[in-house]
Each structure stands twice: as C-alpha cells, then as structure tokens.
Amino acid sequence: MIHINNLSFSYPKHEVFRSLTFTLEGGNVYGLLGQNGVGKTTLLKILAGLLRSNKEACRVNGCNPYKRQPAFLREVYYLPEEPACPPGTVNDFARCCGGFYPRFDLGQFYGLLDRFGIQPLARFKDLSAGQQKKAHISYAIALNTSLLLLDEPSNGMDIPSKSLFRSVVSQHITPERVLIISTHQVRDLENLIDPVIILDKKGVVLHATIEEIAQKLYFFRDVDEDPSALYAEEVPAGYSMVRSNTAHHDSKVDLEILFNAALLHRDWFTDHFKK
Amino acid sequence: MGNIFNFKRFGMLLLKELKEFPLSYGLSVLSAAGVYVLIMALAMLNGIDHPVGIFFRMTMISLLIVVLMVVVPSKMYGYVNHYKKGIYYTLLPASAFEKMLSMLIICSVVTGLVSFSILVLTDYLVYALFPCRLAGTLFGEAGSVTFFSSEIFSVVMFQACFILGNLYYKKQKIAKTIVFLMFLAVIFGVISFIIITQIGEDVVTAFLQSKMGDIPSDVNYFDLKKMNDLSESLRQLPFVRIMALVDYISWSVIGIGCWTGSYRLIKTNKY
C-alpha cells in the first residue's frame, strides 16, 4: 500500500532523511515515534503530497503523492497537529468538504460528534482547541479514506476523549485501510498502535509489530537494576527495564521504555529486528 | 482526463466557493457600496460637477470595481499558501486545473458581476432619493454600456497579476504586488525614456503630432457622449488601432502568464 524506497529529503539548511526504506500494509495502525526534529511530520506530509520527495521514492496506493491527483487525494487525509480553524460551523465544514470523498459518511460523522460531545451547529471558532481537535478527528474518521495520517491526535484531548479516540480508531480500521499516527504521547495510544516505527536522525531504528517486539524483548520491573538490561528507568518501586528475551518470557510492551532503549542501542535494535 | 477535469467535481468545488463568497467578501462589497454613497454625497455637496454627471459616476464605479477585484484574491484565497490553512485547500480532492478555474470564475466573473450589480443598484437608489442632484440614470444615456465593456478586459488581465501575487507572496500580498508592478513600471519607463532619447524627443513629438494631430484638445471629461465620440474618432486612426492591438496583446500575454504561474503554484506549493 505504501512503499518508501530510498527516500531522501532535505530542507534548505537541514537534511531530514537519507535512504529511508520501508513498506506499510493495510489493516494496521502504525505508530510513528521519534524525537523532535527527526522528521515524523515531514514524513506524513510527504505521504500526503504536501512536500516533494525524490522521484518515485514514495508510492502511496501506486501513486506519486506530490502529483496531487484527485484520485489519490480522495483516498488520503492528513490531520495536522494543530489544524487551522475553518470558518463557519462544524456541520458546514463537513458538508462542504466531505462530498469530495467518495466514502464520506455524514451519519457516522454526526455519531462521532455525538460521542465526543460536540454540537454540529457549533462554530469552529467558538470551540476550545480540544473540542476543535475532536471535531476534526470525527471528520477525518468519517471520510473513510484508505490512508489516514494523524499527527499528534491526542494532544489537547481530555482523558475520556483519549479513551474514546482509541475505541473509535480501533473500530475504524479494516484490512483496506492504513492509519499512521505520529505521537510523543505513547502512553495515550499504547493499546492502539501496532506495528511501531521508531525513527532517529539516521533513519528507521525499529519497524516491528507488538508481537515481534514481545518475542524479542522482555519488559519487567525489579527493585534492583539488572546489569543485562538494555535500558532501565527509575520508577517509585524500583526500576522499569527491558532486556533481550532469551528465556522467551511473556511481557507487556512498554512503548516508552522501548523507545528509550531503541534510541540508546540503535545497532542492537537494527540487528535484532532486521527484516 | 478524470484527474484533470471532472464536471461534477468542478461543480462541487465551484458551489463550495460560491457559498464561501458572501461570508468572505460580502462585507467588502457592501463597504464599497457605502464608499460610493459617501463619494456621491461629497460630490453633491461640493458642486464641481452639478448635477453629478454620468461619466463621473461611472468612473467612480469602475474605480471601486477595480479595487474590489484587486482585493478579492487575497480575501478569498489568501490562505492557499498559508502553512496551516492552505493544507485544506491543497488536499481537497480536486485537480489544480479545477481549483484554478474555480478561482478565476470567483475572482473575475462572480466578483465583477456582484460588485457591478451592487454599485449600479446603489447608484439607482441614490438617484431615487436625490433625482435632481444626479444627471439622469446610469444607463439612460447612450455609451454607458460601451464605457463599461471596454474596461472589462483590462481589469480582468490586471487582476491576474494580483491572483499570482496572492499565491506567490505569503504576507502583505496586495502591497507587495503593487510594489512589484510599480517596479516593472519604472523599468519600463526607463527603457522607454532611453529609446525616446536615442531616437530624439523632437522626432517622437513630431511623429505623434502627425498621427494624432486632429484630436481636439478642449475635451470635457465629464461629458460621456463627447468622451465616447472622442474614443470613436481615436479608434479610426490607424496608429491608435495598432497601439490598441499592441496593448491587447501585451495584456493578454501578461494575463495568460499570470494564470499559468498561478496554476503552477497551486500545483506545486509546499507546506
């Protein structure tokens, strides 16, 4: 569905990617993780056709995104971290723009707004930033595009809305759809994102499903720091750690620990998660 | 072909932008009508051209239409190259050609017609209130239609520069476009001056006298009929006809160039 092959991208004074290569398949909610400035938003913008990549390096549904052909655009929606405030009401915005997308479902949109507690006739500018975000997310999901790109979707949301968001996204995903969520709030989306892609300044550190990660890594807590741990973090009851899962224990993947470990032991992760 | 133009998709886009027009630009058009009423009130009080003549009124209406048409691209589509707001526009599933065409229809045709209708209606209302202070209705005198129609082409081509400026500049779009056009005018003026100096000022003056010597110098600029007669007699002169043709061709090249540039910018803008 999405093929990225030797993708390189630079801003005038700053190189973002060099030879980035991976493939994304339908039916998954990809979590795109990385430190500030590694190019998560840039990658989403390239996939949406808002930025130009090197020739043929990026193919989405068989199309070059930057050509911005209507057939491509109607299957892709990108929701930025801080979306602009559209004029008029939430309803007007969805009715005017939704018609361009072949699978836009107005009933579903109203249903999502209702679940998030947003009035369709409310004017966007009268809503708080969090409410605007919820209205935008409702619209983005109701478009039912085959590729949905969400940049920091849980930022600005209250706790019940984050749970609701996870539930809504879980119901949304089908084998034909790909959802890519770029986030720093890994705890908010821990049970939602799978597979995980971790980027650093040199490229992809990790691209693996939660199952693969759980097979190869063991996440545990102990009072004392384990010297064999790839990464250990002090927590109130001792240490939260991750190590190589040589004994084939079952454990729940802790994305924050995973992320910090991956950044600390880049080579170990690239070797062990080589595809 | 479906990726370049689809009638249904274009209709949806045009309808969407038509709906946005009153919200984004309605107040500006009404403000222009208010300015026109103010100008009429001042003209009636001042008494320079008493009763206020049709030519003066038409000039004022034309001027306001030009202002409205110059401002509309940045008011309606100022967000297109904005790093946040422009994303909606760019990702809307319509082709760059459809977006460009819809932009042209809204900026040139819709704005032109709406501004013209509102201003003419305002003039009729002012005339209905103060019939003795105004010299007849706007279209009561022959030549009014000719006057307006002769302006349409130049205004639309002139507006194309502002459509391009709106898509090229990120901020102070109108001001920067005007400064750029003034810069071009200065360059053109300097080149013309150098050419005239090289040929000889006396030679150029004598040439113009020989070509246009029959034109009366005591023209009443407030008299629409005489102004139209003058235009008509000027059009009979071969030299003026050639100059008019050069003028049309130049404006056409500028207009098409600006539209092409605007299309490229819609297609390739980065966010």
Explain the overall architecture.
The complex is a heterodimer of chains A (275) and B (271). In chain A, the strands form three sheets. Chain A has a six-stranded mixed beta sheet with strand order 5-6-7-3-8-9, sandwiched between helices. Chain A has helices at residues 40-48, 70-73, 90-98, 106-116, 129-142, 159-172, 210-216, 255-264, 266-272, and strands spanning 2-11, 14-24, 28-34, 58-60, 76-79, 147-151, 178-182, 196-200, 203-208, 217-222, 231-235, 238-244. In chain A, 41% of the residues are buried. Chain A is built from nine helices and twelve strands. In chain A, strand 11 (231-235) and strand 12 form a beta hairpin. Chain A is 31% helix and 27% strand. By secondary structure, chain A is of the alpha/beta class. Chain B has 271 residues and is mainly α. In chain B, helix 2 (54-77) packs parallel to helix 5 (144-168). In chain B, 27% of the residues are buried. At the A-B interface, helix 2 and strand 5 of A face helix 1 and helix 3 of B.
Order of helices and strands of chain B: HHHHHHHHH
What integer value in Å does the Rg of chain A equal?
Answer: 20 Å
N-end to C-end Cα span of chain B: 27 Å
Order of strands in the sheet with the most strands of chain A?
Answer: 5-6-7-3-8-9
Percentage of residues in helical conformation of chain B: over 70%
Low-confidence stretches of chain A: none
Helical run tally of chain B = 9
Proportion of residues in β-strands of chain B? under 5%
The global form of chain B is globular
Estimate the mean pLDDT confidence of chain A: 93
Give the fraction of residues assigned to helices of chain A. Answer: 25-40%
Q: Helices and strands of chain A, in N-to-C order?
A: EEEHEHEHHHEHEEEHEEEHH
> How many E strands of chain A?
12
